[in-house]
Amino acid sequence: MNKPSFERPLMADCVPDLVATARGDLKATLVIRGGTLVNVISGEILPDMSVAVQGARIAYVGKDVSHTIGEHTRIIEAEGKYIAPGLLDGHCHIESTQMKVTEFARAVLPSGTTGGFFDPHEISNVLGLKGLRLMLDEARTTPMAAYMQVASCVPSTHPGLETTGAYIGPEEVAEALSWGPDMIGLGEVMNFPGVVYGDETMIGEIQATLRAGKVADGHFTWAADDWRLPAYAASGVTGDHECVTKEDVVERLRLGMYAKMRQGSAWHDVAETIKACTELGLDTRRMMLVTDDRSSESLLKEGHMDFVVRLAISQGVKPVTAFQMATINTAERFGVARDIGAVIPGNIADIILLDGRLADVRVGMTIAAGHVVAEKGKMTAVWDSFTYPEEALNTVKLEANIQPKDMELAAPIMEGAIGAKIIHVTENHVDTKEKHVPVAVQNGKVVVSTTGDICKIAVLERHKQTENKAVALVGGIGFTRPAAIAMTVAHDSHNLLIIGNDDALMAEAGNRVIRMQGGVAVITGDKATEFPLRIAGLMSTESFEEVAVQSAAISDALQSAGCTLNNAFMTLSLLALVVIPELRLSDKGLVRISADGIELVSLFDQKVEHTSN
């Protein structure tokens, strides 16, 4: 099979051929004939429309394109089908699917996602700009319109709160933004307190982005009516995905920001946030649908952006409006609407054909950069594989000699009970709750029951051999038998995260992950389930299908141990993310995120009960 070039040439270089094709002097390479056009610019549904393509770009859109058809023109009959622009994900971390970019493209193109705006801050926290460049180079080999952002928060806060494998500051941001037009802007600025209170590094990164003519994305988790949101917007941050209520959407729109409404695998926010449209009737052109993120299992079973668009429609959004939220709105937000986001003359030919009702978003064919790349849910295009270097495959700088005693949690009393802060998991949400409960102490160590609600959680630094380690307590996991999970997917520093109710199993799980050089391991008394993630400890070298199988095996193992959280692995991987309220754990200790800022706090509260030996 011939491997097509998925080049996306500049509009300026294509003008002569596009105009000649539109006149009929140069024949189209591809024609889509007689379908119903979803015009996201005008908000209309137009019957009996056709599209003529020259190379990678659209040359003509109209009722009759017969003058553009030649002997070698490929003709696709679209009668009874909808013609729509390819879907765009306005906020996604590819690494969170555990797939490399090539496999991610294979997973999402058949369901109609032809492009996205990707923030590779996961690999950047491990490998810095080298990791970002690797993902950019790989993305350029695929048919997708893959725009990359520079990670703004490496680390997400500052070295006093967590240890990362790399550092990115204003100089690194400026360098990365010079790599090409597909370096689109600054990734989510999670250190929002740093921006509001004038942190030199954060302000410098935003300035470097604006000077490059690019956009800055946000991440603001204080309340919608907090006086500091306008201060955050004053920095030049113009988009934010941390919207969980309709009020969050309203306040961002009023400040001129784009409000991103997300429906990931483990966080479900569209039903609430979309009420800014369906109940309040606000103008929707600065509302965007995003994933942030969907697991390989979800991609296989439910789809990608097509799933999110269907969900928005099911909540009462007009179908054409929902399509705008996943196409033209997104393209306009990032300043690339003359390339992608609409089926109009001049734009790149990223087009999907839909079967059945428009509201069903049933993708039958995907065209990317003028090439048919998927039909009937299957990839038809092929391209060269991408190989990661050894330095990206050996990033876990730990010895596989974790002992059960390393998981012990010393208490300030010898026997009895003591009050402690608990990180409590909230299903289907990114936030946790800070709870205060009494915990049992024996021989100066906290004791957790293998059938109780509380587990231990540990974070071990794995990048720089600092030997940093912190142990705390977490609730809401649900284990009903002795069990443990360990993973190097631990946003955003991606140190080694271990959760369990048995010290020996926790140690074994951690050692297995180290020996794999990254990944996930679930250990119960009678079974071990492993999911190797060799690329930076984040992504698999395997195919999309194999990743989905291995990810599902982890989910099954967790469920068999009693953890019934929806998309549990993705939820648990956020427990070290020290910029999301209310309580998290890093390699430096327990971190509280509140309206007052981000700070390290002690695990133990006042003594509840005490008995002497």
TrEMBL record:
Domain named Adenine deaminase C-terminal: residues: 432-594
Amidohydrolase-related domain sequence ranges: 82-370
Catalytic activity line of the entry: adenine + H2O + H(+) = hypoxanthine + NH4(+)
GO biological process: adenine catabolic process
Claim: Manganese is one of the keywords in the record: yes
Pfam family of the protein (one): Amidohydro_1
Cofactor(s) required for function per UniProt: Mn(2+)
Record's keyword terms, sorted: Hydrolase, Manganese
A GO MF term: adenine deaminase activity
This enzyme's EC code(s): 3.5.4.2
Record-stated family: Belongs to the metallo-dependent hydrolases superfamily. Adenine deaminase family.
Name by which UniProt lists this protein: Adenine deaminase
Name of the gene this protein is made from: ade
